[in-house]
Design brief:
alpha/beta; five-stranded parallel sheet; 6 helices; binds flavin-adenine dinucleotide
Length: 334
């Protein structure tokens, strides 16, 4: 059993920000991360809305952040997924896929979201969710991008930049919701075809390694096929909260918090994309991580000394109170 003051579950931008604040307050904190630290930002080609960087590659930004965390001697455990939690006592217990056990009086859940899986059952192996990670081998090849949101269009432009020959964006709804300017940019390339009211109903692997995709054009009630080298799927995200089911209050799978990032369990905080909120961005995840770490610090001090640092603020935002960050459900804003 490894003991800390604070265990942070999830090493994305939110968890790493919380770790920086915790370490600077002399809280013995540990990050548990199922992959490598960086979260969704590692999957993002260019980030252009984080103050101080006009434009930076997502992986570079997260490397800088990780260096910052490491410089403060925060314990980081990677490639180890949290598989079970017991939040019932004063000391919270956490178990990981490697069979390690952790305990701490305070926990911050910052597990973010994962891409929604490709909705058609198939044995075609070339289905991807990250163009930064998997796009390079598709230079000179033809692909389908599933999803006509901002991600679908932005990633298509990125894939074209890698040298992909032709892209067919397929959207199930009658129109695409990506920003009009991005759609214009994509169409102007002459290499991106966009189909709306279109479903993919089957994908068959061919002997040459390509995939035969069957479409249903819902507007014309017509079925046809197209052979492609790969499929990139950008149809939204789902919260990584399976392990917290029946342990924390949730809304549509997102963890309910108040403006202090408190969950319904004292000592357990949640922050970032995994919570019910309206705007899911790097800067908002950083803000949430900051608040969660400061509140966890206040909770630990109160637990140790029986005294509050800001007694008048203790119940300023009781759990369950309606406030701007705790809207019941939110759309995928980016
Ligand atoms: C394609 C795309 C592009 C984007 N571009 C931008 C942009 O340009 N600018 C911007 O501001 N925002 C952008 N966003 C949004 C931004 O990436 C998120 O708001 C931000 O990453 C949220 O941070 P987070 O730390 O809350 O969650 P995440 O980044 O999702 O991190 C959560 C971490 O928790 C880990 N985890 C999950 N479950 C477990 C478990 N059981 N055990 C251990 N670890 C676990 C995950 O592996 C992950 O590393 C983009 C999102 C997407 C999908």
């Amino acid at each position: 059993m490894k003991s800390f003051d604070l265990v942070i579950i999830g090493g994305g931008i939110c968890g790493m920000t919380a770790a920086i604040y915790a370490a600077r307050a002399n809280i013995r904190a540990c990050i548990l991360e199922q992959q490598v630290c960086g979260g969704l930002v590692n999957w993002t080609n260019t980030v252009e809305n984080v103050p101080s960087y006009q434009s930076i590659h997502g992986i570079d930004l997260m490397e800088k952040c990780r260096e910052h965390v490491e410089s403060l001697n925060v314990a980081i455990e990677e490639v180890d997924k949290v598989t079970a939690v017991n939040f019932s006592g004063d000391i919270k217990k956490i178990t990981t896929s490697m069979g390690e056990e952790y305990e701490a009086p305070a926990v911050i859940v910052a597990t973010g979201r994962s891409p929604r899986p490709f909705p058609v059952e198939t044995n075609f192996p070339n289905i991807h969710y990250c163009s930064v990670c998997d796009g390079t081998p598709y230079k000179g090849k033809d692909i389908i991008v599933m999803g006509g949101g901002n991600s679908g269009f932005d990633e298509s432009l990125y894939l074209l930049g890698l040298g992909v020959s032709n892209i067919h964006i397929v959207e199930t709804f009658p129109s695409c919701i990506a920003a009009a300017s991005t759609q214009d940019l994509a169409r102007a390339t002459g290499k991106i075809q966009v189909s709306v009211s279109m479903d993919i109903t089957a994908v068959e692997e061919l002997t040459d390694g390509r995939g035969r995709v069957t479409f249903h054009d819902k507007a014309e009630d017509r079925t046809y096929t197209e052979d492609v080298d790969g499929i990139f799927c950008f149809i939204g995200q789902t919260p990584n909260t399976g392990v917290f089911e029946d342990k924390l209050d949730m809304d549509h799978g997102y963890i309910r918090v108040n403006a202090d990032m408190e969950t319904n369990i004292p000592g357990v905080f949640a922050a970032g994309d995994v919570t019910t909120k309206k705007y899911r961005q790097i800067t908002t995840a950083m803000g949430d991580g900051t608040i969660a770490a400061l509140q966890a610090g206040a909770y630990l001090r109160r637990r140790r000394t029986g005294r509050s640092v800001f007694p008048e603020m203790d119940h300023a935002v009781p759990y369950g109170t309606s406030h701007p960050h705790s809207l019941p459900f939110s759309r995928n804003y980016r």
